[in-house]
Amino acid sequence: MRRGLWGYVFISPWILVYAAFGLYPLLLSFYLTFFTYSFVRPEDYVFVGIGNWIQGMLDPLFWRSVVNILYNQVIFIALTNILGLGTAILLYKVVNFGRLFRTIYFMPVVISIVVVSLLWRFIYDGHDGLLNTILGYLSFGAFKPVDWLGRPDTALGAIIGVSIWQAVGFHMVIWLSGLQTIPASLYEASEIDGATTLQKFRHITWPGLRNTAVLVLIVITIQAFSVFAQINLMTRGGPLDATQTLVFQVVVRGYEKQDIAGGSAISVLMFLFVLSISLVQRYLTRARVE
Predict the structure, then answer these.
(1) pLDDT of residue 120
(2) At a CB cut-off of 8 Å and minimum separation 6, what does 105 contact?
(3) Which parts of 22-154 fold into alpha helices (H)?
(4) What is d(CA 19, CA 81) in angstroms, rounded to the nearest whole number?
(5) What is the distance between the alpha carbons of residues 278 and 272, in angstroms, rounded to a whole number?
(6) Domain locations in the chain?
């Protein structure tokens, strides 16, 4: 009992911080969705039931944000996993300078997303940005400059590219840790049996990474839904609402429009949406994990 008591004592600071900055805001947001509440006029405090939920779902921007998030999630999950796993496999086989390359690939993760967003905003500049300059040189001047963040058909893809560039290093480390748990004796035995590289990956590497894949899938889903800083600093949801996201809608409604109840309703809907996707993912991977 004493050991158990000391364990709760040691984790109590984290519990208090989580309760104050995580659990309490979540419960308060859920409570405020049933009322009309605003910082500007706090006296207008009227119970409206699920009216805020209905109003939020009837807003065309809400569904535009949902579509953008789903599109972002599919592209972000696919490319980040492919690049992260591919990089991890290459670095796993590198003996010389392996740590140097791991550090280089992981550097974007530790850089502030604000700095990353501002940096890539200059790269995507429609006139003399680095990307247009490089493409112009490679095409010997045939490529015409593109305003990557100012066009509805390229803005969301540009945002996804920034997110992938920063996230690949983090997922590379997770995949690399999973690769290190696979016994080397399995690869040695497969070489004796004459297995090809593709057969090693199919029958040894990928089955050994199933638990890691579940973790990566959950983490990357949360990252795809929580995209905000890039949108806020690079496009502000435009052009023509092409880069609207649910998190950005929550901030705009709750703080810029001072509609706390409306922003809380969207945040709760997003929470339920993410929870549903996570439960589906858990169900689909349940048999393999257990």
Answers:
(1) 93
(2) 87, 91, 168, 169, 172
(3) 24-32, 51-58, 60-93, 98-110, 113-123, 130-138
(4) 33
(5) 10
(6) 33-289
Residue 114 contacts residue 233 (beta carbons within 8 Å): yes
Instruction: Kindly give the interhelix angle for 51-58 and 260-289, rounded to the nearest 10 degrees.
Output: 80
pLDDT in tens, 206-223: 888 888 888 888 888 888
CATH topology of domain 33-289: MetI-like fold (1.10.3720)
Question: Minimal CA–CA distance to 101: which of 91, 112, 89?
Answer: 91
DSSP string, 102-127: HHHHHHHHHS-HHHHHHHHHHHT-TT
Alpha-carbon separation of residue 223 from 28, 71, 187, 219 (angstroms): 23, 13, 33, 6
Residue pair 29/268 in contact (Cβ under 8 Å)? The answer is: yes
pTM of the model: 0.82
pLDDT at 71 over 70: yes
Question: What is the Cα–Cα distance from 234 to 3, expressed in whole angstroms?
Answer: 51
